[in-house]
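hey so i finaly got around to running the thing on T-complex protein 1 subunit gamma from Medicago truncatula. pasting the sequence first so u can double check i didnt mess up the copy paste, my clipboard has been acting weird all day
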Amino acid sequence: MQSSVLVLKDSLKRESGPKVHHANIQASKAVADIIRTTLGPRSMLKMLLDASGGIVVTNDGNAILRELDIAHPAAKSMIELSRTQDEEVGDGTTSVIILAGEMLHVAEAFIDKNYHPTVICRAYNKALEDAIAAIDKIAMPIDAQDRGQMLGLVKSCIGTKFTSQFWGFNC
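ok and heres what it spat out for the 3d tokens, dont ask me to read them lol
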């Protein structure tokens, strides 16, 4: 078996350990903080300049993050997380970034107490299992043929979108 050889610029150096963990967490939290105010019933719009110099006003987290020119690898990962959420689900890009930022914020306290990152990851995986079990206990079946149930479900899904102001006209 042949080992691979990495050729890096002389100016680059490889770092590891808690200092790097903190830097990665801070960069990721900075991304979450950029779009945090665009979530919820009192959300605010962001005004951006696009690449062609035009002004874009939006509260779409994924659209905001696409306009950022980010160099930090951890921050880029957060933007990729948003893009993946948009591609796979079509919504929740802001929520997933804020949730990830908060999870990293909590993890940072454990890193400060010298917990190994794999221990923190195992704890998050256990919390995920517990959350899924709790959701399964309270889940209710939905009758897809019941127009009232379906309208209520759709209304709750688009409640924070601009189209919600026209709800009476849509249905």
